[in-house]
Design goal:
8 helices; globular; Gyrase A, domain 2
Length: 363
């Protein structure tokens, strides 16, 4: 369940599930809440699996099995991937150096398998790996006034400026860490991390003190991320080669992309990928399902990964993986046996107060 289920119920939450974890879908009228986050600021309880890596060799060990450089400095972090032998994405990770330990935020269902697999591969290194999902609560703060919101309630430290960096301070009487995140929603964004026992008081501070923040759920988080052009793990990332998605910020080409202890060359890391991620604007009101075929004339050129109606644009938008060499912008998508006109649209669909680090970058 969520860490503060009773509080969410008092707010009239409708619950759902993502990746085996109970989450808040919405608090009613998610489209209106969407507008509130786009215009001001909102707060959402995030669903992560948390893995803690400790020991003298923790940085070296994790650095050797992920696609990006793990920062050695306390207070710094990165976004990284674990790849399979074919170069496909197995796990996405936010990695934060918290001094004597590394905190890894991963998709909820991946925490136990990752900790077990890595523990089995520890030999002479001084490394201890454990799952700590139930020990923490993590709240996302998103919106054009998110920085102002954090500044209004964070004591003992200024808001962090650099992405993936964090500071320690307090909110009310509770200790917290505040991370500047990667703008998944296309807005200024932070994550507030606290221990589970003080989660209710920290959430109350975020919602009601200083600049008020509108509570929102995953229904709104996902439509915001779609408008921002951000690929997500369950719909775009899992099993896909990173460069198909243009995720260059997750790859350090100087160190290579690691799978276990081996560098793989099948990541297309310096060449042109065979496919790419694009945005599509669809005619009509029908929302196609993931996997719907994309056509250029009579030829199939790709498939949708997800689609939804944009509360801001009031039209159906989608992300799709299509042939890299596709030149035409006027396409069709098969919806319930009918061909619906679709237009390739530059990402992001909506320009917010910040730009997502997951926007595709191709060379």
């Amino acid at each position: 369940m969520t860490v503060i289920e009773s509080i969410h119920r008092e707010h009239g939450a409708t619950f759902g599930e993502r990746d085996g974890r109970t989450i808040v879908e919405h608090f009613g009228r998610p489209e209106r809440t969407h507008q509130a986050v786009r215009n001001v600021v909102g707060v959402v309880e995030m669903a992560y699996g948390v893995v803690v890596v400790e020991g003298e060799d923790r940085v070296e060990y994790v650095d050797n099995v992920v696609s990006n450089r793990v920062p050695a400095e306390d207070g710094q972090g990165c976004y990284a991937l674990v790849l399979d032998p074919q170069g496909g994405i197995e796990v996405e990770l936010y990695i934060y150096n918290a001094g004597e330990r590394l905190l890894l935020f991963v998709p909820p269902s991946e925490a136990e398998p990752l900790a077990e697999e890595w523990s089995e591969k520890v030999f002479i290194q001084d490394v201890e790996i454990r799952v700590a999902t139930d020990d923490y609560a993590i709240f996302g703060v998103h919106g054009p006034t998110a920085t102002e919101k954090i500044a209004s309630v964070l004591n003992g430290a200024p808001s962090p400026d650099e992405r993936y960096s964090f500071v320690r301070g307090s909110m009310g009487d509770s200790g917290v860490s505040v991370i500047r995140t990667d703008a998944l929603t296309g807005e200024e964004s932070y994550e507030v991390v606290c221990t589970a026992d003080v989660a209710e008081s920290v959430y109350d501070v975020l919602e009601t003190q200083g600049l008020n923040a509108a509570p929102f759920g995953y229904r709104t988080l996902e439509t915001l991320a779609l408008e921002a052009g951000s690929p997500l793990f369950a719909t775009e990332l899992e099993g896909t080669v990173p460069n198909v998605l243009g995720l260059r910020n997750a790859l350090d080409f100087e160190k290579g992309c690691y799978v276990g202890q081996e560098v793989v060359s099948r990541v297309e890391n310096r060449g042109q990928p065979s496919r790419k991620l694009v945005g599509l604007a669809l005619e009509g009101e029908a929302v196609p399902e993931a996997g719907a075929a994309v056509f250029d004339g009579d030829s199939t050129v790709g498939e949708l990964t997800r689609a939804d109606e944009s509360p801001l644009l009031e039209t159906v938008i989608a992300l799709a993986i299509v042939d890299y060499g596709l030149e035409r912008d006027d396409l069709t998508v098969r919806v319930d046996g009918e061909e619906v006109p679709a237009t390739v649209t530059e990402l992001p669909f909506v320009e917010g107060s910040d730009r997502s680090d997951r926007l595709p970058t191709y060379q």
